[in-house]
Amino acid sequence: GEDVEQSLFLSVREGDSSVINCTYTDSSSTYLYWYKQEPGAGLQLLTYIFSNMDMKQDQRLTVLLNKKDKHLSLRIADTQTGDSAIYFCAETLSGGYNKLIFGAGTRLAVHP
Amino acid sequence: EAGVTQSPTHLIKTRGQQATLRCSPISGHTSVYWYQQALGLGLQFLLWYDEGEERNRGNFPPRFSGRQFPNYSSELNVNALELEDSALYLCASRAGGELFFGEGSRLTVL
C-alpha cells in the first residue's frame, strides 16, 4: 500500500539540532523527498535522496535512509527561527505511477 | 528563470458552482501535477498530466478534472463545488527526480 507517516509536531530550541522522522511502506520507492512549507506559501524542495543511497548531506541538512526499516530522517543542524515551518516527507513510486505520496507534515517550532 | 506559476491566488465560490484553476510549469517541463491540501490534512495527489495526456489520477470524484494544453500549461476544473473542496490547490512541474511547486491557489467554497 501507499502510506507515509510523520509525527505532527516538533519543538526545539534555537541552536539545537532538529530531527524529523518519517516512515513509508512502499519498498519500491525510488526517490524520497523532504519539502518545506512556510505559512501561506507553496512547497519548497529541500533535498531528496535516491533509494540506493543511505545518507546525503547538504550544508545544515542531513538525510538518513534506512531501507530495511523504511525509515527516513531529516536532521537540521544549528536550527534557526527561520527553520520554523511544516516539513513534508514524500516518496515516489516506481512502476510508472510517477506521483508523490506525501506524509501529513511535521510542524517544526523553534523557540529561543 | 520563472518558477511554476498559478492563478488565481485566491478564489471564492459558492456551493454548486464551478472553479477553474490554472498552472504554468517551468519552461521546458512537460509534466504537471495537481495536489489538494485541505486544512489540517496533508497533500493529496489529484492528477498528473504529461505531454498533453492524463497519466494518472488520485482518489477523487469525476467532478475533479483538468487538461494540459500544447504549451504544457494546465487547468484544473472542479464542478458542483462542495464545502469540503475548500483547500489550497498546488501545481507542480517535474524535471528528472525533482518536483517544483507553485505557490498554490486557495479555493474557498461558501
Architecture overview:
Chain A contains no helices and 11 strands. Chain A is mainly β and 112 residues long. In chain A, strands 2, 4, 5, 9, 10 and 11 form a 6-stranded mixed sheet that branches. Chain A has a 5-stranded antiparallel sheet with strand order 1-3-8-7-6, with no helix packed on it. Chain B has no helices and 11 strands. In chain B, strands 2, 4, 5, 6, 9, 10 and 11 form a 7-stranded mixed sheet that branches. The A-B interface holds A 30-31, 33, 35, 41-45, 48, 50, 88, 90, 92, 97-105 and B 31, 33, 35, 41-45, 48, 50, 55-56, 58, 90, 92, 97-104.
Short description:
Chain A is mostly beta strands and 112 residues long. Chain A has strands spanning 4-6, 9-13, 18-24, 31-37, 43-50, 55-58, 61-66, 71-76, 85-92, 100-102, 106-111. In chain A, a hairpin with a 5-residue loop joins strand 4 and strand 5 (43-50).
Q: What is the count of helical runs of chain B?
A: 0
- Shape annotation of chain A: globular
Helix residue percentage of chain A: under 10%
Which band does the percent of strand residues of chain A land in?
over 45%
Q: What is the number of helices of chain A?
A: 0
Task: Please identify the structural class of chain A as seen in this structure.
Answer: mainly beta
Could you list some keywords that capture this structure?
heterodimer, A: 112 residues, mainly beta, six-stranded mixed β-sheet, five-stranded antiparallel β-sheet, 0% helix, globular, B: 110 residues, seven-stranded mixed β-sheet, four-stranded antiparallel β-sheet, 55% strand
Please write out the topology:
The complex is a heterodimer of chains A (112) and B (110).
Chain A: E1 4-6, E2 9-13, E3 18-24, E4 31-37, E5 43-50, E6 55-58, E7 61-66, E8 71-76, E9 85-92, E10 100-102, E11 106-111
Parallel strand pairs in A: 2-11
Antiparallel strand pairs in A: 1-3, 3-8, 4-5, 4-9, 6-7, 7-8, 9-10, 9-11
Chain B: E1 5-7, E2 10-13, E3 19-24, E4 31-37, E5 43-50, E6 53-57, E7 64-68, E8 74-78, E9 87-95, E10 98-101, E11 105-109
Parallel strand pairs in B: 2-11
Antiparallel strand pairs in B: 1-3, 3-8, 4-5, 4-9, 5-6, 7-8, 9-10, 9-11
